[in-house]
Records
---
Amino acid sequence: MRLQDKKVIALVDKDFEDLEHWYPVYRLREEGAQVDLVGPKANETYYGKYGVPAVTDYAFSDIHAEDYDAILIPGGWAPDSLRRFPEVLQMVQHMDEAKKPIGHICHAGWVLVSADVLKGKTVTSTPGIKDDMINAGATWVDEPAIADGHIISSRRPPDLPDYLRLFIDTLAK
């Protein structure tokens, strides 16, 4: 298992995109990583856009980003809420400064926009937030998934296999 001894934060909030949350969580666990679900409250059930529940292990305030090796941000409508939490922005900024993998898919790019970590980076996302990404200083490309150093981005659920291959390869290094 390539990711044994790796710890990953998987952010969650209401209306996350079900596949964009669960597919990465399960793939990373299959590779041996410890993946903690982290949301506004600990031991709280949050429902995805299609009704799939996720029960958080920890609240944002319960964890320290420096104890983790990577962070995953799902798409859906959750990123619009997640980016309003200072603790989430601090986690993303810590991961960026430490050059630890930051995975984001679809609308999750909004969190990186608000964390102000995209200047000079090449990323992708759902086309709906292309302008936001560009206005935050990124170069936007229409690719299934792309890694620019430690920042791994993807467009939508059909691109999940490409996204997770890049994310797992980056985290395994």
---
Amino acid sequence: MRDWENNGRDSDRGRQSINAERKRAQEIAEERRKWLAGEKYVYDAPRKQGSFTPADRERPIAPTVGKAEQKQNRSPAKGRKKKSKKNSVDYRSNDERRRDYAAGARKKRRRSVIRALIFTVVIAACVLVALSLTVLFKIETISVSGDTRYTAEEVIEASGVKNGDNLWRTTSQNVTDKLSAALPYVGFAKIVRSVPSSVEIVITETVPVYSIEKNNKYILIDENNKILETQAAKAGDTVLLKGVEPLEAKAGELLNVKVSEKYETAKEIINEAAASGLKLTEVNVTDLNLLTAVYSGKLRLEFGSKSDLADKMKMAEEVITKLEKENNKQQGVINLKSVTKAFFKEEPLNPTSAPKNNGKNNKKTESGKSNKSTA
């Protein structure tokens, strides 16, 4: 045999022996681990009690399956491979094991400290909130500000805010509800707190926008349909609603009417006029097919029905602009029943009088005799 062939065989034999020794070492380590864990060889009952016979002594030790092996045999969750630490051989030295154990202990201590801190902060916050809502922050000073017709004493008494109440339990919404019912002209109340014991009630008043005449007195209503007064001597700067019949009216409550369609139609006419820059002083919705309105107490607008109301209001705006350029004090009636043309008739106007509706007047308006027509 040649020398180079001998050398090759020796090197192969050396590699095989190293692999065999490594494999044998791994098997021994695995057997030792199982023996230490008690997974494979355990004493049976007679041997544990010490009452076994010579026959039992010869009997082989029965293998059992421990809890660790049962967990290992369970099928892992779908899509995840469960790594078993039992199957891997630990080649770490004692120093490495001690270092890893110390690092794990430090992590556990750190987590325990963090949990304790979080728990302490939560408990402290709960205690602080409870004290703030019960024992601390008692109201000692109450003041009133804002433009209002009511005195500070009336506002404080109606608000229900008293000395000794908790500062944080007094809310703007609760105070607004109480004041709005007791003092109708209060539109909104804002609570301004000053820690530790002062409260300021800032009043914003509402104003009347609509009025309804009843028994020679006026019911005043704001834009949110709240009744402000029921026995007012004057209507003031409001739009007088004719044809709207209120039911039981009480200051501080919302308006209830007999026919809601008439009230909604009146508000629609007022809104359309405001969008066109026209300020109305009166709206008559007694007959929904003969709707009228009065502009600035001098010009009566006759719409007929409320169909094409926006277009009719635009025509009214054009006619009023032309008439005011000619003579600002001119009085009369603007017929807007036709969507294509508007007709003006000059005549003295009584804003509180009901509109005339007869055949002769309509024919005169259409023919244009003694009337001015505006496209």
